[in-house]
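[recover] target loaded
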């Protein structure tokens, strides 16, 4: 079983990016367990002075990322930049390293966002994540009110979500085949 964790960069209750991750959970095929991390709102603002004394919500985020074989981030663009929600979550794991060598997919539920995807990709790369080619995509939704049911009714979007899950599962498999044997 490949465990894939979704992180949404939007806290909006009707977020299309969150809806897309919920749709992903519903299309995940046998052999893939996809779950959405539901508690990014409780992660405090990053402060290096708090490292070693982190809030329980930071430990919970790190543990969930450690347990995941791969991660999918779906996030909107705010003012041509990465949302504070996702950047804050990532800042907490720069030092602890949960994404190092981990296959990561990066999705944006819009084809109009031209700046944040590349900025987020660069951040993930410098953190040591393996941003997987074929899982770094704009998903053709372009409807800021789409629910998960609406997304599941868009064949092109479902095809992208299925592809991303397959590509990530393959990256996890390839990683396990090349990982050094534990002593
Ligand atoms: C503060 C703010 C800034 C935004 N800036 C951009 C932007 O620079 N580029 C863009 O394509 N969309 C921008 N948008 C539109 C969002 O991408 C769009 O509303 C998207 O649906 C939000 O994602 P969500 O539905 O997951 O919350 C912005 C929205 C907000 C609220």
């Amino acid at each position: 079983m490949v465990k894939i964790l979704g992180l949404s960069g939007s806290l909006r209750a009707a977020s299309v990016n969150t809806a897309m991750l919920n749709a992903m959970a519903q299309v995940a095929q046998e052999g893939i367990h996809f779950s959405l991390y539901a508690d990014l709102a409780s992660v405090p603002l990053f402060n290096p002075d708090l490292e070693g004394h982190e809030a329980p919500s930071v430990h919970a985020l790190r543990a969930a990322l450690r347990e995941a074989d791969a991660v999918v981030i779906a996030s909107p663009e705010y003012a041509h930049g990465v949302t504070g929600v996702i950047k804050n979550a990532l800042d907490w794991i720069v030092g602890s390293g949960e994404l190092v060598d981990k296959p990561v997919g990066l999705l944006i539920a819009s084809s109009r966002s031209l700046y944040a995807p590349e900025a987020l990709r660069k951040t993930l790369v410098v953190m040591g994540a393996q941003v997987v080619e074929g899982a770094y995509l704009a998903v053709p939704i372009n409807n800021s009110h789409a629910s998960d049911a609406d997304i599941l009714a868009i064949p092109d979007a479902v095809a992208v979500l299925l592809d991303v899950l397959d590509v990530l599962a393959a990256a996890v498999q390839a990683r396990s085949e090349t990982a050094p044997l534990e002593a």
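[recover] notes: Residues 2-178 form a domain with the Rossmann fold fold (CATH 3.40.50.360).
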